[in-house]
Write a structure and sequence with these properties.
alpha+beta, Rossmann fold, disordered N terminus
Amino acid sequence: MAKGSKQSKSKEHKSTVMKMDGNSYNTQQEVFELLKTMCPEAFTEGKIDVKKLRRSLGEEVSEEVERYGLNWAGKSICFRHIQESTTATLIPCKTDGVDFDTTENLFIEGDNLQILKVLQKSYYNKIKLIYIDPPYNTGNDSFIYTDRFAESKEDYLQRIGDKDAEGNLIKDGFWRKNSKDSGHFHSNWLSMMYPRLFLARNLLRDDGLIFVSIDDNEIHNLRMIMNEIFGEENCLDRGCLVWINKGSTKGFRKIVKNHEYILAYGRNAEIVKSCFGKNFPNKLNDLEHYCFNRPNPGNPICEIKFKAGCKIKGVKDAVFENVVGDEVKLEIVTEKMTFKNSELVDDVILKGAFPYRFQIEEFFRNQDDGKPTFDKQGQEWVEIYFNSKGMPRYRKSRANLIISSVIDEEDIPNYGADDIKTIFHSHPTANQI
């Protein structure tokens, strides 16, 4: 019976089986179909009529010949590389894996452009984090394809599949060096990077992040193509991390380079909550600033009562009369402000421009009732205090933990290298996984 049921079930679902063409995901076709749905009037005989599309978009189309952007020799070819589908297939290597049938990890080896295309169908809009450590284009990097138009497909597949004694892919003959003597030194690097970054973006989910390491050789060009592919608005808070490392004095005569960069972008930075990591110091957990600012039409002069018991930091006992402040002054309406044992003795009324007036007043009301106070971003007002000059400040607890733009190896040791060696060259423990 089980056998008969299985067969009938197979017949029942036979009509739902779809035939796959074996090609990688075609992003160009998706955009084409989207345009056809949104702007059917811009199509003539199944093709896009540019003049009609321009009419449909109206003022959103720029007719200017000169405009801001990055161009290089070979950029148009990049889009051909992106649009070319591949029939390449990932082949499992069970003998090289560890716990092959139960592991949730994948280590993929091969030409990364082809692999990115293969992953488009299965992992489109699903990846949370991508980290790329590309060639820095120092003049000694080998990443240019060696074009051999006369060789057969079989020879090509054999060449890119050759491995050394340790099982690593042999790159000799597959890539050639991008020399600084080349007339297209920067163009070659851009043409290599652009398709890979474009395809990597497709894999990111909406709140996904991408980090790309680079040094001063191509930081300027990398930022330009990242802005073009991901959108400048998706750069995370200007998104450039400075990684301070040990560096080397070799080859430097005036300034020793002991830092690199990491660019950080999101697919949709607006919905990214945090990129805080466990190895980062917690000194950035809180947000502290002055309660006042210079007066302006949107921030007029007003009076606020500060409650007795507010702390003063930097001094124990102090008395301020009439006015406090240097460049921005606050009037003490109650004439005198007295602190004993680092606490405000009596309520005091200060007159000035307080941009957070209503939140400050709410904080003191809620403090009496034992209730927390939150701003519009969900950040909790933790404390209102005075500095040693008698100027009021606030401290909030950040709703989203942040990281510093400077990463110092002394603060954040490089644990990863040893872990990776252990995991991939011996049987991993539960803690390592």
